Write a sequence for this structure.
């Protein structure tokens, strides 16, 4: 099956620093990747849709300058949380949409737990 | 826009008993439907999906789901639950157009007691 790798799985940083999270599709190409945020005991909230070679599309209420998304290749998207603050602490999950075959399926990474001190 | 409702926040079931998780959706046509499972601290794993055709779909880990158009439902079932099935279960829906966004339900936490 399709595999999506997300790195790091857990990161702790100081307030004011920036953190980069990587999302890679290991065995398929993905022109579209998605970034979600999940609060404890809650569902996934879509933050943005990442399209290879173009600007990401952000959901309403998500600060694009705070959450920088880059999708430079067909297998890699990155989310950078800039000037992180404690309220940015959360579980971030990426997914990738396979372009061939099961093109309507999103495959998810294992998530990144961000703790901002 | 589509939406998903999972009426049950938490279900406790005995090991070996059957399990049914409810999912209702709102959409103007027949959407694409998915069930995902999330273990603590992990990402989401696809259990099964419905695009079209046979309304009873089989998935991994012994799960199945039935699409009922008349009830706008896509309930997940498993005949005999194992302790390893304890997890969070999410129903998701996406439209059939070019908008590939998934809308997730709030999730149902399944606890399995010995």
């Amino acid at each position: 099956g399709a595999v999506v790798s997300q790195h790091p799985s857990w990161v702790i940083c100081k307030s004011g620093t920036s953190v980069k999270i990587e999302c890679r599709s290991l065995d398929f190409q993905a022109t579209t990747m998605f970034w979600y945020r999940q609060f404890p005991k809650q569902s996934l909230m879509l933050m943005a849709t990442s399209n290879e070679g173009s600007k990401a599309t952000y959901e309403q209420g998500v600060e694009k300058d705070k959450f920088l998304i880059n999708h430079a290749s067909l297998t890699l998207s990155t989310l950078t949380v800039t000037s992180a603050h404690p309220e940015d602490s959360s579980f971030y999950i990426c997914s990738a949409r396979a372009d061939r075959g099961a093109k309507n399926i999103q495959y998810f990474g294992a998530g990144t737990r961000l703790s901002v001190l | 826009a589509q939406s998903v409702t999972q009426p049950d926040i938490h279900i406790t079931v005995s090991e070996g008993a059957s399990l049914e998780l409810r999912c209702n959706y709102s959409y103007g046509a027949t959407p694409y439907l998915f069930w995902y499972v999330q273990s603590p601290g992990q990402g989401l794993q696809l259990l099964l999906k419905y695009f079209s055709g046979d309304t009873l779909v089989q998935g991994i880990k012994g799960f199945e789901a039935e699409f009922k158009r008349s009830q706008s439902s896509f309930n997940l079932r498993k005949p005999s639950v194992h302790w390893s099935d304890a997890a969070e279960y999410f129903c998701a829906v996406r439209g059939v157009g070019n908008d590939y966004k998934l809308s997730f339900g709030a999730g149902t936490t399944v606890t399995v007691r010995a």
User: Anything to note?
Assistant: Chain A has a mean pLDDT of 91. DSSP finds no helices and eleven strands in chain A. Chain A touches chain B at residues 4, 6, 32, 34, 41-44, 46, 49, 91, 93, 95, 97, 104-111, 113 (CB under 8 Å).
